[in-house]
Specification:
By secondary structure, this protein is an all-alpha fold. The protein has one domain: Metal-sensitive repressor, helix protomer (Methane Monooxygenase Hydroxylase, Chain G, domain 1), CATH 1.20.58.1000. The protein is built from 3 helices and no strands. Helix 1 runs antiparallel to helix 2 and helix 2 packs antiparallel against helix 3. It is elongated and about 55 Å long. The protein starts with 11 loop residues before the first helix and ends with a helix. The model has no long low-confidence stretch (mean pLDDT 86).
C-alpha cells in the first residue's frame, strides 16, 4: 500500500527565492519571444532557449533540495551522519543539475 505524503516548501524565504528565479526565467522567455518576432538568427534563439531551459532545471533542483532539507532534515531526529548525508545530497543536486 502506497501512502501519499504531501511535501511543501515551508520557508517563506524559499518561496521568495523560487518566485524570484521564476520571474527571471519569465523575463528570459519574454526576451526570446521578442527575438523570434525580430527574426533573429536560429543560433541566437537556440542559445537563449538553452539558457532558459538550464535556468528552469536549476529552479527544479533548488525546489527539490530545499524540500528535502525542510521536510527530511530540519527538526528531525535523524542521527548526525544521516543529516550530513542528506545535506550533502542536496548540495550535489543543486551543484550538478
Amino acid at each position: 500500500m502506497i501512502v501519499k505524503t504531501e511535501l511543501k516548501l515551508v520557508s517563506p524565504e524559499d518561496k521568495r527565492e523560487l518566485a524570484l528565479r521564476l520571474s527571471r526565467i519569465e523575463g528570459q522567455i519574454h526576451a526570446i519571444r521578442q527575438m523570434i518576432e525580430r527574426e533573429e538568427s536560429c543560433e541566437l534563439v537556440a542559445q537563449q532557449l538553452a539558457a532558459a531551459r538550464e535556468a528552469l532545471g536549476k529552479a527544479f533542483a533548488e525546489l527539490v533540495a530545499r524540500t528535502i532539507e525542510r521536510n527530511c532534515v530540519a527538526g528531525r531526529t535523524l542521527d548526525l551522519a544521516a543529516q550530513q548525508k542528506l545535506v550533502a545530497l542536496t548540495k550535489i543536486l543543486t551543484k550538478y543539475s
